[in-house]
Write a structure and sequence with these properties.
membrane; cell division; single chain; three-stranded antiparallel beta sheet; two-stranded antiparallel sheet; 5 strands; globular; 495 residues
């Protein structure tokens, strides 16, 4: 394949710019309608919010085109659209005459700006995603430290029944949001080096290939320690997220359906054990099963019930911007922003939001298939999967498909830690997409010929149903495969 000239990539840049304009127009239109619905005029700060959002979006666009010119052109506009719509919803609650305590559009914009800046810095700092593989065990230590921090006396603090926050002076953070990124890097690095032994070594039991304990030991210890700490902090939502990441990446690495069966079995056993031991888990389950119970409606299930009433009031097409009653939903700007959006945008609006998330996840998985190295495949697949799982857990809890967990909707809920962490996830996705879409005749900016020594057991990864050798051969053949790719082709095991 011949190298593409820079001007041949111009259609991609133009398409992304057009999508950014559409995303910003929808968000600004929401803010405009909020103002005219509540104040009969443009809301205070409309032009400031609009100009800052536009400046941030196009700055990210320019940085992306300079540092990762072949990156996906859809992911950034999709995330900007989610941020813009959430900006309109939080501004609507900010302007509500009833006064919604905690809603603050300026604070949300500030954290969005910091998130975009951090993502741009990550794109500059990480020239080749494969360099992260050197940090495999460093990421493991960082992840464990992050989940333990809220338990440190004087640093952690319990809020709303969960001890998941740390406070340093006037600043607060939720470390587990960043721990999911560290664990994704660790799992990807460890699994790509031990993929064959996990998939092929060990004994069979009831038709399932069980790995040897010494091969699974390191990630099993990390998983168990993290879950034990998070359960102690009463952060069951993040516990579920980490467990799903653990099982999902094991499946991606080994292509063994048995891991899904083992994972579901372990989850069922853990859920029953947690329900029998912890009173707060029992309460969550009771709220889920019997939310309309009069004994619960005016207390523990009040938030859930008000969210359900709000979405039912919205109906198919919603009450319209500024015409709902989010003041009746506790934390309508953060934990339950999905319910407040459903009241004003209706089922149609909620489905549109879910489709935007689906596009982001689909693009992430697509680039996991397209990237040429095993570590990138696992990292991109893991990050996309954890975002999809978080979306399911949040929306499922609000709609009573599953019990509430306390997680927040990525990019939409007001919250600094969530916005910063998820923008870092997007930066990593974009960096990997650049490597996946870049013609191999063009070297990655600052690429390493062989970023880490090839694992003794091979790096081949089966993603999308192709056997390990087949997947890597197709990726490397005729594309000027790197030495790292050649090592993977030779050492892969075709099952």
């Amino acid at each position: 394949m011949s190298a593409l000239r820079p001007e041949e990539n111009a259609p991609t840049r133009v398409a992304e710019a057009i999508l950014l304009v559409v995303a910003l127009a929808l968000g600004m239109g929401g803010m405009w309608m909020v103002g005219y619905s509540i104040q009969d005029g443009l809301p205070e700060g409309f032009w400031t919010y609009s100009i800052v959002l536009a400046a941030l979006a196009f700055t990210a666009h320019i940085v992306l085109r300079l540092r990762a010119p072949y990156a996906d052109q859809v992911i950034l506009p999709a995330v900007i659209l989610l941020n813009s719509v959430s900006m309109a919803m939080i501004l609507r609650q900010d302007l509500d005459p009833a006064g919604i305590d905690g809603a603050n559009a300026s604070r949300h914009l500030m954290w969005t700006a910091l998130g975009i800046i951090v993502a741009c810095v990550a794109l500059f700092a990480i020239k080749d995603h494969r360099s992260l593989r050197r940090l495999t065990y460093t990421a493991m230590i960082v992840g464990i430290v992050l989940v333990i921090l809220p338990l440190v006396p004087g640093l952690g603090r319990e809020i709303n029944g969960a001890q998941i926050w740390i406070f340093i002076g006037p600043f607060s953070a939720q470390p587990a949001e960043f721990a999911k990124i560290a664990f994704a890097v660790f799992f990807a690095g460890y699994l790509v080096a031990n993929r064959d032994t996990l998939a092929l070594a060990g004994k069979k039991f009831l038709g399932l290939q069980l790995p040897r304990l010494r091969d699974l030991g390191p990630i099993l210890i990390v998983w168990a320690v993290s879950l034990a700490v998070l359960v102690g902090e009463k952060d069951l939502g993040t516990s579920l997220l980490f467990f799903g990441l653990f099982v999902g990446m094991l499946y991606l690495a080994t292509d063994r359906v048995g891991w899904i069966v083992i994972g579901l079995t372990m989850f069922a056993g853990g859920a029953v054990l947690a329900w029998s031991i912890f009173s707060h888990v029992q309460l969550r389950v009771n709220i889920w099963l019997d939310a309309l119970n009069p004994d619960l409606m005016n207390g523990p299930s009040y938030q859930l019930v008000q969210g359900l009433f709000a979405m039912s009031y919205g109906g198919m097409f919603g009450a319209g911007w500024g015409e709902g009653y989010p003041e009746y939903i506790p934390f309508a700007f953060s934990d339950f922003i999905y319910a407040s959006l459903g009241e004003e945008l209706g089922l149609t609006g909620l489905l549109a939001i879910l489709l935007i998330y689906l596009v982001i996840v689909q693009r992430g998985l697509r680039h996991a298939i397209g990237v040429r190295d095993g570590f990138g495949k696992l990292l991109a697949g893991g990050l996309a999967f954890v975002m999809a799982l978080q979306l399911f857990v949040v929306v499922g809890g609000i709609t009573r498909v599953i019990p509430l967990t306390g997680l927040t909707l990525p990019f939409m809920a007001q919250g600094g830690s969530s916005l910063l962490a998820n923008w870092i996830v997007i930066a990593l996705m974009l960096r990997i997409s650049d490597a996946a879409r870049r013609p191999s005749a063009l070297p990655t900016r600052g690429a390493l010929a062989d970023p880490v020594p090839a694992a003794a057991n091979g790096d081949a990864i089966a993603v999308g149903g192709a056997g390990p050798v087949q997947a890597e051969t197709e990726a490397g053949a005729g594309r000027g495969a790197t030495p790292d790719d050649a090592t993977q082709i030779v050492r892969g095991v075709d099952r």
